[in-house]
Design a protein that fits this description.
heterodimer; A: mainly alpha; 6 helices; elongated; B: mainly beta; 11-stranded parallel β-sheet
């Protein structure tokens, strides 16, 4: 059996076992998934903004926006993928929050040139690493989307 | 000038990997340390014992420049318990004490007796003999250390001013039973005061001031009845940094008692700094991979990153902070968080009854289950932010000043009676 046929068979089996749940139209499961996505994104938002003392506002704002965006999706699978895309966007922005936290902290203490401790090759490495992590998360979303996309024919 | 890399301590420090990165409060009886003295990490952070020196009765006085033209000549002529008394002047020499134990080297005026390395001599005063005391003088412009004890039992530095030396100001390595007191250190790329590779150290640092150094205090793999108290740590790159490194023996760092210090504004980008010191930039007290330390009743304020942080040390091994007690400190005006615990950590770190506004992770300073959970998990953000600082030193330049040519130290209080009899390093002596 060729790899293509084997992979196609795997997709068919996954579809047959999960289609009842993931391809269903909007329902309780969609809402629960949207809430979980909101919780995850809100927690991440709280984590990256804690340096600014806005941990809880960030949790509620990011969580609410994420939940509302996800709950508008038609099916559980698009809720999951949308949540992953939003999380990937947050992960990609993490180095900016990391740098901004140091910048704001240094500025508040009257450090001469706070940019010197922020703009560095190390930050570039962080941008690349979190970019890769973000791409991995987004890729999972893409794979899931393609895996469970409705057949055109 | 000697190559700094010829010093074993320097070589060890240079293989530093990365910093990813203190219950028992108060005194406990000496008996508790005797119970398991063979375990290098079993001694508590503080023992109830006296470190007050006692006068010698039989001694001779060797005067410089009246009797000898150089300090080294007076040291060579001296016997155990003698006093080398140095008059005002600038002495362009390095002094070593290798044979004469319990010798006292004392300036008659702290601010006007100056040992000057001129940027070309390695160490101001080096002591490899036990019980050597250095008092009431200034050491400056040495390529490596101001005053340096190595491998000794008994040492004391009192009323010392160390300024603008190439690595450390006042430094004790692989040494036990010692005191640094009433001293001032400024302008050193590594640390103003350093005690390394000892456990139990049986040592005290008290009533000292460190400013404009890479870090104020560094203590690699040092602890066990080691107390840092009632001192000022300000305007350094980083404040107080007990730390673990694989490159020195006796890892992990354990059981240092840090009490009632004033630690503020250690964000000085113009301070000379090594990579190690820069990794502690903007944090008042950093426990880097240490265990069982006690940090209590300190006032910590004005730091760009964290007030008090416990973080893992990533070297050949990953050293996770555990069993540290941080309580009843007052921490204010920290950029990222007043209290912080990085992850991974070894758990059982306790942050209690501190006066703070912010913590990472949340609820770190709370009572109950949440505090216990947070004291076990920590926050990777803390490790990440500190790790980026070290990575910056590995990948490129980082802001720092130069040690040579730094500002002259301000005049410091001198000994009340520089003609008094010489005294022991510490009392009572242990392990002799």
């Amino acid at each position: 059996m060729s790899d293509d046929r084997r992979f196609g068979s795997l997709i068919e089996r996954l579809r047959s076992t999960t289609s009842g749940r993931l391809e269903a139209r909007h329902g309780v499961s969609t809402t629960i998934l949207a809430l979980l996505a909101g919780l995850l994104c809100g927690s991440y938002g709280a984590w990256v903004t804690a340096d600014f003392g806005v941990r809880w506002p960030a949790f509620f704002v990011v969580g609410t926006v994420c939940t509302l965006h996800c709950v508008r999706q038609d099916s559980p699978i698009t809720v999951v993928t949308t949540g992953l895309y939003l999380l990937a966007a947050g992960v990609a922005m993490t180095p900016l929050f990391l740098a901004a936290g140091g910048l704001v902290g240094a500025s508040a203490q009257g450090v001469g040139n706070p940019w010197q401790t922020i703009l560095s090759a190390a930050l570039l490495v962080a941008v690349v690493l979190f970019g890769v992590l973000s791409a991995i998360i987004a890729s999972i979303g893409v794979v899931l989307e393609r895996l469970f996309a409705p057949d055109d024919d | 000038m000697n190559d700094n890399t010829s010093d074993p301590a320097v070589r060890r420090r240079e293989v530093l990997g990365a910093i990813g990165s203190a219950g028992v409060v108060g005194s406990v009886g000496i008996s508790s340390s005797i119970r398991n003295e063979s375990d290098p990490h079993s001694t508590p952070a503080q023992l109830d014992r006296s470190y007050d020196p006692e006068d010698y009765e039989d001694y001779a006085v060797h005067r410089v420049p009246e009797d000898y033209s150089t300090i080294q000549a007076a040291v060579e002529a001296a016997s155990s318990r003698d006093l080398v008394s140095i008059g005002p002047g600038r002495y362009r020499e390095s002094v070593t004490v290798n044979e004469t134990d319990r010798l006292t080297i004392r300036g008659r005026d702290r601010n006007d007796v100056i040992l000057d390395g001129e940027g070309i001599r390695p160490n101001g005063i080096t002591a490899t003999a036990d019980g050597v005391v250095v008092e009431n003088l200034t050491v400056t412009n040495y390529g490596y250390n101001g005053v340096y004890w190595v491998g000794v039992d008994g040492y004391r530095g009192s009323y010392l001013t160390a300024a603008n030396n190439g690595e450390y100001g006042v430094y004790a390595y692989d040494s036990v039973n010692g005191v640094f007191e009433h001293s001032y250190a400024a302008g050193h790329p590594d640390s103003g005061f350093y005690i390394g590779q000892c456990n139990p150290c049986h040592a005290r640092i008290r009533n000292v001031t460190a400013e404009r150094n890479g870090v104020g205090y560094s203590g690699t793999n040092a602890g066990g009845d080691l107390v840092i108290r009632e001192s000022v740590w300000r305007n350094n790159m980083g404040g107080i940094v007990p730390n673990t490194l694989d490159s020195e023996q006796l890892a992990p760092q354990a059981s240092t008692h840090i009490e009632n210090n004033d630690v503020h504004e250690n964000n000085n980008q113009h301070a000379p700094a090594t990579a190690f010191a820069y990794a502690a930039y903007g944090t008042g007290i950093t426990i880097a991979g240490g265990i069982d330390n006690v940090v209590v009743d300190n006032t910590v304020s004005g730091h760009a990153n964290y007030g008090i942080a416990a973080v893992p040390m990533i070297d050949s091994n990953v050293w996770e902070p555990s069993g540290n007690v941080i309580e009843t400190n007052t921490v204010t005006d920290s950029g990222r968080a007043d209290l912080a615990l990085g992850s991974p950590n070894g758990g059982t770190n306790r942050f209690e009854n501190n006066t703070v506004a912010t913590t990472r992770p949340s609820w770190l300073n709370s009572d109950g289950l949440l505090e216990t959970a947070m004291g076990s998990t920590g926050d990777p953000w803390v490790t990440l932010s500190q790790g980026l600082l070290y990575l910056q030193t590995e990948l490129g330049d980082f802001p720092h000043g130069d040690w040579l040519g730094g500002p002259a130290p301000p005049a410091q209080p001198t000994m009340d009676d520089p003609e008094r009899p010489p005294r022991t390093a510490v009392s009572p002596r242990r392990n002799r």
